[in-house]
C-alpha cells in the first residue's frame, strides 16, 4: 500500500495539471470544525432516528420536534468556523479556470469560507421553505423565535429547506452536478461515507467518464472502489498539504 506521503504526491500531480476541477464534500469535511458527522462513533444517527427527524412523515407528525432538532444543529453550525479544508476548497476555486463544488452539507461552512461556485445538493439549514406556497427564504436568526417559522409572503408554516430521506433531489441541480463532474479532469471527494447512493453514483459516473477521482477519508468507503488515489487522512491536514504540493509543481 502506498504511504500517505506517496498518495498526496500522486494526487498533487493530477491536481497540478487539471484545468477543470470538481469537489464533492460530505459531513467529514466539517468534523474538524466541531460539527458531528451522521454515521460512525458520535455521529448524529447514533443518538437520533432519521425516521423521527429527517423525513416528510416525521415533519407532518411533529413539525415542532423536527424544527427543535434543526434549530439545535443551526446553533452548532453558528458557533463553528470553517476549517483549513473549507479554506483550501475555496482557494482551489479561485486558482483553477473551471471549478464546481457539490456538497451534501447543509451547514453553510463552505460559503463562509468563500466558496461561490457551489451546488448544495441536500439544501441548507439556513433557509426555510413554505409548506403552503413553496417560497424559499433565508433564516439567519439562531435560535428561531417561533417554531415552525412562518413564511414572510403568505404566513404559512415553513419546513427546513433540506432534502429528507424518501425525497427526490432537484433534477436540475443533479443534472448540472453530473455534467460538470463527468467533464472534469479531477474530482476531489472529501469526507463522505458513501452511504447515500446519489453522491456515490455521481462520483462513479465521473470516474467512468475518465475523471480522476481522489478520495480523502480516514476510512475506506464505497468511493474507494473506483478512486484513482486514496488518501487515508483527515481533510484539515491533507488538503493544505495537497494544495501546497500542487501549487509548487
Ligand atoms: P457521514 O456521516 O455518513 O460520513 C462522514 C464521513 O466522513 C465518514 O466516511 C468518515 O470516515 C469521514 N470523516 C470523518 N472525519 C473526517 C475528516 N476529518 N476528514 C475527512 N473525512 C472524515 O456523512 P455524509 O457522507 O456526508 O443526509 O452523509 C451523507 C448524507 O447522509 C448527509 O448529507 C445526510 C446523512 O443522512 C440527509 O440528512 C438527507
User: Structural class of the secondary structure composition?
Assistant: alpha/beta
Question: For the report, how would you describe the main beta sheet?
Answer: 6 strands, parallel
Number of strands: 9
Which blocks of ≥5 consecutive residues have pLDDT under 50? none
Number of helices: 11
Strand coverage percent: 15-25%
Please report the distance between the alpha carbons of the first and last residues. 24 Å
Helical content (DSSP H or I, runs of 4+):
40-55%
Hetero groups: 2'-O-acetyl adenosine-5-diphosphoribose
Secondary-structure element order, as H and E? HEHHHHHHEHEEEEHEHEEH
Radius of gyration: 18 Å
Description of the molecule:
With 249 residues, this protein is of the alpha/beta class. Helix content is 41%, strand content 18%. It is built from 11 helices and 9 strands. A 6-stranded parallel β-sheet has the order 3-2-1-7-8-9, with helices on both faces. Strands 5-4-6 form a 3-stranded antiparallel β-sheet, with helices on one face. The model has no long low-confidence stretch (mean pLDDT 96).
Amino acid at each position: 500500500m502506498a504511504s500517505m506521503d506517496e498518495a498526496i504526491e500522486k494526487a498533487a500531480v493530477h491536481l497540478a495539471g487539471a484545468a477543470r476541477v470538481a469537489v464533492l464534500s460530505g459531513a467529514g469535511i466539517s468534523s474538524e470544525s466541531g460539527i458531528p458527522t451522521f454515521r460512525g462513533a458520535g455521529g448524529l444517527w447514533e443518538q437520533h432516528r432519521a425516521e423521527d427527524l429527517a423525513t416528510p412523515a416525521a415533519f407532518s407528525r411533529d413539525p415542532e420536534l423536527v424544527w427543535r432538532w434543526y434549530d439545535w444543529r443551526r446553533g452548532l453550525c453558528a458557533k463553528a468556523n470553517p476549517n483549513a479544508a473549507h479554506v483550501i476548497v475555496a482557494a482551489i476555486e479561485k486558482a483553477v479556470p473551471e471549478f464546481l463544488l457539490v456538497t451534501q452539507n447543509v451547514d453553510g461552512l463552505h460559503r463562509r469560507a468563500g466558496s461561490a461556485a457551489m451546488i448544495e445538493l441536500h439544501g441548507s439549514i439556513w433557509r426555510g421553505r413554505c409548506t403552503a406556497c413553496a417560497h424559499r427564504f433565508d433564516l439567519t436568526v439562531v435560535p428561531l423565535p417561533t417554531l415552525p417559522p412562518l413564511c414572510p409572503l403568505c404566513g404559512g408554516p415553513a419546513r427546513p429547506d433540506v432534502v429528507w430521506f424518501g425525497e427526490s433531489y432537484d433534477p436540475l441541480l443533479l443534472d448540472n452536478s453530473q455534467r460538470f463532474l463527468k467533464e472534469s479532469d479531477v474530482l476531489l471527494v472529501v469526507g463522505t461515507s458513501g452511504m447515500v447512493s446519489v453522491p456515490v453514483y455521481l462520483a462513479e459516473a465521473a470516474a467512468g467518464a475518465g475523471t480522476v477521482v481522489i478520495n480523502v477519508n480516514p476510512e475506506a468507503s464505497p468511493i474507494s472502489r473506483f478512486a484513482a488515489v486514496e488518501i487515508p487522512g483527515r481533510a484539515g491536514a491533507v488538503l493544505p498539504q495537497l494544495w501546497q504540493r500542487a501549487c509548487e509543481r
